[in-house]
Amino acid sequence: MAGITLAVPSKGRLEELTREWFADNGLTITRPGGARSYLGAIEGLPDVTVRFFPASEIARELIRGTIDFGVTGRDLIHETSESGPASVVFAKPLGFGSADVVVAVPDAWIDVTHMHDLADVASDFRSRHGRWLRIATKYITITRQHFAKAGIAEYRIVESLGATEAAPASGVADIIVDITTTGSTLTANALRVLEDGTLLQSEACLLVSRTAAWTPERRALLDVVLTRLDAAIDL
Amino acid sequence: MTAAAAQRRTALEDLVEAQGATRATPPLLLPADPYFDLAGEEFGRRLLLTTATTGAEYCLRPDFTLPIVKAYIEDGVGEPAAFSYLGPIFRQRETGPAEFDQAGIELLAQPDGDVALDQVLTFARAALDLFGVSPTIHLGGVGLFESLLAQADMPAPWRSRIRQRFGHTEALDRLLTRLESAPELPRAEQPSREAMVDDITEQMVAAGLSLSEGRTPTEIADRYLEQQALDAAQIPPATLKLLRDYLAISGPALQSLTRIETLARAARIDLAPRLKSIRHHLDNLGEASVSFDANFSPRLDYYTGIVFEMTGPRGEILASGGQYDRLLERLGAVAPIAASGCSVWVDRLEAEAA
């Protein structure tokens, strides 16, 4: 394989902002087939193939090394696999898509303001209620890692793929771990972020796969593109 | 497998068979839920999971202890029983294949916990011996720490908070640091409990939260008030220093135990029965290099008495186990039942021997 593959989010604001960012840096990403086509190019760089993927798949494929570099959220790299951050190089933050992965509890839990309060509540939750403290989230890996670090082991995760903020009210879970930009959705659902409850600060990043099959030629090609984008890396 | 490796394997088989125990062969495919229930998400992330068409989650056998103990409980507990095992288990690991062999024994409802632990330790050492490893043995005292905590001078609610962090060095250190730096604040006057419960109830109803399914308004108010009271009712500095000094004790077992004795005597705390039991096991371990680490404990709250790890020249854990009298209760038994056992990491032993 002589060329290299760039993965770009396939739809929505993230696609727009990514293409704008490349354009600002003098590289025009084309998508000849429009929104229904998943193959594109960069004008003037025929050896770079552009593929349009959902952001979570970009994270997965970068970690696996089936695409060489791409744009996706930092949160997705951490979430996709425990070894995710070690499998990629964060070449450049792009300055958009900022959001925090946070732990939020019901406002009414006035006794719980910090993670150490949560540790206390979790530790005797089962003896009080006959079940584990339940956490609704789509961020299973991130939650497990950070809760382990905080010394909290007594909980169960309920996977939630959408409208996570509704989980406490619907009785699916007691608290949530979710992504938020302004916090207004949480507030509207009477949820409050713990004072030390920010698990990860995420934003859109340009990432290079460490696990891709890098030959000197492909590496040289990558460096040409990265230089144009004012990014440099050590693989 | 080389001829020498095959010979070691046969010898290990023989040792497992020679324990006077029932050879346990639990299924390879097990329901995943009991593991999550027992060990939580931290262990759960190591499981190799698969889902049935019904949506039920299964995992490849990640250990022998849980299926052995569950089957024992289902058969109707009470009679002393002994089980031994050798076979593959499956766990996600950073290095090495996810499938690897473990050998071990489980001694349940034995009349004398010390005798049972002796057999466990003897088995582990014999297994390591087959592979030519003379290990460093690390002992820890869960029961010893619980006994210290029960007698140390402090407001009662702090005991469970400290116990819950035992074995997680950073979390326990953070808690002690917080307690040490707690300011002597005059407490603001608290609203009455009744007013608080009303207030919380109102908030929960407005947020659409069930008042009974999860934490209740009284539970929240009580913990809030308890927290306020605790912030005011501080742990005496002398107790915090005792805990710090105790947890820092680590090193050759006899020296460690002597230091603990001195510490306990000065604090007028009686740890004699626990210390005596640890010394008894030390005598039986004879010449081996044994250290006692006061802060060493698995992060699972069903461990109760003495716990141990045996490491090889490369520092890898080759055998681990101990006493876990709360395990059977956690798995559904109606009363605590003595239990001790250990597991031996066969692939690591083979790597040491080869």
Q: What's the CATH H-level superfamily name of the largest domain in chain B? A: Bira Bifunctional Protein, Domain 2
The whole-angstrom Rg of chain B is 23 Å
Q: Which class do the helix and strand fractions of chain B yield?
A: alpha+beta
Strand count, sense and barrel status of the largest sheet of chain B are: 9 strands, mixed
Number of strands of chain A: 12
What is the makeup of the main sheet of chain A? 7 strands, mixed
- Note the beta-strand portion of chain B: 15-25%
Taken together, the total number of domains of chain B comes to 2
**Secondary-structure element pattern of chain A, one letter each:** EHEEEHEHHEEHHEHEHEHEEH
Mean pLDDT of chain B: 90
Strand content of chain A: 25-35%
Structural class of chain A: alpha/beta
Number of extended strands of chain B: 12
Counting DSSP H or I runs of 4 or more residues, the number of helices of chain B is 14
Determine the N-to-C terminus distance of chain A: 19 Å
Largest interface summary: A-B, 39 and 41 residues
What features would you describe in this structure?
The complex is a heterodimer of chains A (235) and B (354). By secondary structure, chain A is an alpha/beta fold. Chain A folds into two domains: 4-97 and 203-228, Periplasmic binding protein-like II (D-Maltodextrin-Binding Protein, domain 2); 99-202, Periplasmic binding protein-like II (D-Maltodextrin-Binding Protein, domain 2), CATH 3.40.190.10. Helices cover 34% and strands 31% of the residues of chain A. Chain A has ten helices and twelve strands. In chain A, the strands form two sheets. In chain A, strands 2-3-4-1-5-12-6 form a seven-stranded mixed sheet, sandwiched between helices. Chain A has a five-stranded mixed sheet with strand order 9-8-10-7-11. In chain A, a hairpin with a 2-residue loop joins strand 3 (39-42) and strand 4. Chain A is elongated and about 65 Å long. In chain A, 45% of the residues are buried. The model of chain A has no long low-confidence stretch (mean pLDDT 93). Chain B has 354 residues and is of the alpha+beta class. Helix content of chain B is 47%, strand content 19%. Chain B has a nine-stranded mixed sheet, sandwiched between helices. In chain B, strands 2-4-3 form a three-stranded antiparallel sheet. Chain B is globular, with a radius of gyration of 23 Å. The A-B interface holds A 82-83, 106-111, 116-117, 119-121, 123-125, 128-129, 132, 141, 143-144, 147-151, 153-157, 168-171, 174, 189-190 and B 36-37, 39-42, 44-45, 94, 160-161, 164-165, 168, 170-172, 174-175, 178, 196, 200, 203-204, 206-210, 213-215, 217, 219-221, 223-224, 227, 299-300.
